[in-house]
C-alpha cells in the first residue's frame, strides 16, 4: 500500500533510490498522483456485481422522526449533482440540467418510496432548486419532504434583505409555500466571524426562527462538516435555549468515523459529532456516505476483498449500510446522478440490512486500508472554480483518482510495459486537461482553499501532481534511478 509522506527537496537524479521506492516516499512524484488516460486495465480481473433490478414496492426501510413523527425514507435523494445535457460538465456554469432525465429519476425515486430531497441555492451553479422543484411539482406535496439551505456564503448576501431574498427564492424555485427541513448551510465555513456575519449580527437566525413559528419552516437545523470544536457553539446555543435545533445534517462515512485519511482532517472522528447530537436527542440526517464517491470506487485490492465478502452487492452498499446501521439516523442523503446509482442504492435499502458485528469488524479493516490510500477526495462540486489562473482543478483531481483506481500508473521503469504506459498516461493526460489548465499553472494563491467543502489542500495536491507529470515527461526507460 502506497503511503505519501512529505518530500524534502532532493535531487531525484542523484538519489540512487529505486523508482518503486521513490514512488512510495516522494510526495511530488508519488505514483498515486497519476493523472492520465487510465486506459490500461485488466478487464475481468474483478468480477463486478450483477445489475441490480428494481426493488419490490413497499420494501424500502423508513425511520420515524421522534420529534414530529415524520416517516422518512432511509435513503434520501441528494441534489448537489444532477444530470446534465450533452457533454457539459456539471460543475461548469454553462452546464444545463437535463430536465427529462431528472424527471425520470425523481419519478422512479418517489414510486419506489424515496421521500426526502436535499438541495441548496448554490448546488449546480444555482440551478438545482428550480430543477428539482419542477420535477417534484408533478407529485402531491404531502408525498415528499424538501430540505434546502441558507447558503449565504458570499458577504454580499449577508445583509438581512439579501439573505431573506435567498430564502424566498428557495420557496419560489421549489414550487412550495413551506420548507420541511431548512438548514444553516455549513455555518462555520470561513470561521466564527463568518458565522456571526451570516446569521447572528444581521438577525437572519431570528428571522428563520420566526418562519418556523409561522410554519413556513417546519424544522430548523444545520449542515455540518467542520472542526468538531466548532460544534460546541451550536450545541451551547441549543442547550441555553437561544435556538432549539430540530435536526442536524452531518457528514458520515466509515472512513471519517475514525480516520483523517480522506483529505478532510476536520471530518475525522465523525463519531464525536454524532455522539454530541445523540446525547441531546437531535435527529440526524447523514450526507456524503460515500465520501464524495470515493468509497464507491475503492482501489482494486480493496474492491476485490469487498466483493469476495458480498459478491452480489455493490461496493457502495457497504458505505450505505454502515451509516444506516447507526442509531438515530433518519435518512442517508446520497448523490444519485444517474439511474444506475439510484437503482443500486434502492436495492441496498429495500430493506436496509444492518451490519453484523463481524461485518463491522471487517469494514474497520477496510477503512484502515483505505486510510493509507492517498486519493484526493474531490467531489467535483466546482466551488473552487473558476481558478483565477485557469487551472481546471476538478478535472485534474478526477483523472488522478481514475488512474489510481484503475492501476494504470507507470511505476517501474524496468517493467516491459513501462514505455507504453508512460506514453499512454501522458497523452491521455494532455487530452483530458488542456496544457494551459494543468496543475503546473497553479501559483499557490490559495483562493480555492476556503471554498472547498472537503477542506482539501488544493495547491499542495496540484503541486504534487504537476511534479509527477513533469517527472514522467523528463524520464524514460533508459533512466536508471
Can you walk me through this structure?
- The protein has 481 residues and is an alpha/beta fold.
- 37% of the residues lie in helices and 10% in strands.
- It has 16 helices and ten strands.
- An eight-stranded parallel barrel has the order 3-4-5-6-7-8-9-10, surrounded by five helices.
- Helix 3 links the parallel strand 3 and strand 4.
- Helix 3 crosses helix 4.
- The longest helix has 17 residues.
The helix/strand series, from N terminus to C terminus, equals HHEEEHEHEHEHHEHEHEHHEHHHHH
Radius of gyration: 23 Å
- Give the mean pLDDT: 82
Structure class: alpha/beta
How much of the residues is beta strand, in percent? 5-15%
Number of helices: 16
**Total strand count, please?**
10
Unreliable stretches (pLDDT < 50, length at least 5) are 1-51, 260-268, 477-481
Overall spatial form: globular
**Strand arrangement across the biggest beta sheet:** 3-4-5-6-7-8-9-10
Q: What's the end-to-end separation, in Å?
A: 21 Å
Q: What descriptive keywords fit this protein?
A:
481 residues; alpha/beta; 8-stranded parallel beta barrel; two-stranded antiparallel ribbon; 16 helices; disordered N terminus; disordered C terminus
How do the strands and helices of this protein lay out in sequence?
Blueprint: H1 12-15, H2 19-25, E1 62-64, E2 71-73, E3 75-78, H3 99-111, E4 116-118, H4 128-136, E5 145-150, H5 160-173, E6 179-184, H6 192-200, H7 204-214, E7 217-224, H8 228-239, E8 247-251, H9 270-279, E9 284-287, H10 300-309, H11 315-324, E10 329-335, H12 339-348, H13 357-370, H14 393-406, H15 418-432, H16 458-474
Parallel strand pairs: 3-4, 3-10, 4-5, 5-6, 6-7, 7-8, 8-9, 9-10
Antiparallel strand pairs: 1-2
Helix pairs in contact: 3-4
Amino acid at each position: 500500500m502506497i503511503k505519501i509522506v512529505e518530500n524534502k527537496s532532493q535531487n531525484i537524479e542523484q538519489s540512487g533510490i529505486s523508482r518503486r521506492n521513490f514512488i512510495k516516499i516522494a510526495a511530488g512524484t508519488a505514483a498515486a498522483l497519476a493523472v492520465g488516460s487510465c486506459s490500461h486495465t485488466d478487464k475481468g480481473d474483478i468480477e463486478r456485481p450483477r445489475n441490480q433490478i428494481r426493488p419490490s414496492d413497499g420494501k424500502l426501510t423508513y425511520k420515524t422522526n421522534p420529534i414530529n413523527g415524520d416517516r422518512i425514507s432511509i435513503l434520501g435523494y441528494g441534489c448537489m449533482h444532477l444530470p446534465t445535457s450533452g457533454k457539459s460538465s456539471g460543475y461548469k456554469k454553462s452546464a444545463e440540467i437535463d430536465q427529462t432525465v431528472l424527471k425520470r429519476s425523481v419519478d422512479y425515486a418517489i414510486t419506489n418510496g424515496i421521500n426526502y430531497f436535499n438541495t441548496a441555492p448554490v448546488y449546480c451553479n444555482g440551478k438545482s432548486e428550480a430543477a428539482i422543484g419542477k420535477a417534484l411539482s408533478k407529485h402531491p406535496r404531502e408525498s415528499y419532504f424538501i430540505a434546502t439551505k441558507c447558503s449565504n456564503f458570499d458577504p454580499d448576501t449577508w445583509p438581512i434583505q439579501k439573505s431573506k431574498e435567498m430564502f424566498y427564492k428557495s420557496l419560489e424555485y421549489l414550487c412550495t409555500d413551506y420548507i420541511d427541513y431548512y438548514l444553516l448551510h455549513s455555518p462555520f465555513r470561513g470561521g466564527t466571524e463568518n458565522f456571526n456575519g451570516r446569521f447572528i449580527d444581521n438577525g437572519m437566525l431570528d428571522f428563520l426562527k420566526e418562519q418556523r413559528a409561522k410554519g413556513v419552516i417546519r424544522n430548523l437545523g444545520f449542515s455540518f462538516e467542520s472542526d468538531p470544536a466548532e460544534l460546541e457553539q451550536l450545541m451551547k446555543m441549543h442547550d441555553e435555549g437561544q435556538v432549539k435545533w430540530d435536526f442536524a445534517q452531518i457528514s458520515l462515512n466509515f472512513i471519517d468515523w475514525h480516520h483523517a485519511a480522506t483529505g478532510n482532517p476536520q471530518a475525522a472522528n465523525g463519531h464525536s459529532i454524532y455522539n454530541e447530537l445523540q446525547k441531546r436527542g437531535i435527529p440526524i440526517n447523514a450526507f456524503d456516505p460515500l465520501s464524495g464517491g470515493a468509497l464507491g470506487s475503492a482501489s482494486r485490492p480493496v474492491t476485490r476483498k469487498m466483493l469476495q465478502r458480498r459478491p452480489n452487492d455493490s461496493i457502495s452498499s457497504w458505505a450505505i449500510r454502515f451509516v444506516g446501521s447507526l442509531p438515530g439516523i433518519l435518512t442517508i442523503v446520497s448523490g444519485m446522478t444517474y439511474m444506475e446509482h439510484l437503482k443500486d442504492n434502492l436495492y441496498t435499502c429495500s430493506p436496509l440490512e444492518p451490519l453484523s458485528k463481524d461485518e463491522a469488524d471487517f469494514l474497520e479493516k477496510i477503512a484502515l486500508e483505505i486510510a493509507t490510500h492517498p486519493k484526493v477526495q474531490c467531489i467535483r462540486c466546482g466551488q473552487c472554480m473558476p481558478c483565477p489562473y485557469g487551472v481546471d482543478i476538478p478535472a485534474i483531481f478526477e483523472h488522478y483518482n481514475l488512474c489510481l483506481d484503475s492501476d494504470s500508473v507507470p511505476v517501474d521503469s524496468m517493467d516491459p510495459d513501462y514505455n507504453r504506459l508512460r506514453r499512454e498516461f501522458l497523452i491521455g493526460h494532455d487530452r483530458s486537461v488542456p496544457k494551459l489548465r494543468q496543475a503546473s499553472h497553479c501559483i499557490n494563491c490559495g483562493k480555492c482553499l476556503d471554498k472547498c467543502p472537503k477542506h482539501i489542500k488544493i495547491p499542495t495536491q496540484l503541486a504534487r501532481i504537476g511534479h509527477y507529470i513533469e517527472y514522467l515527461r523528463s524520464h524514460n526507460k533508459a533512466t536508471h534511478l
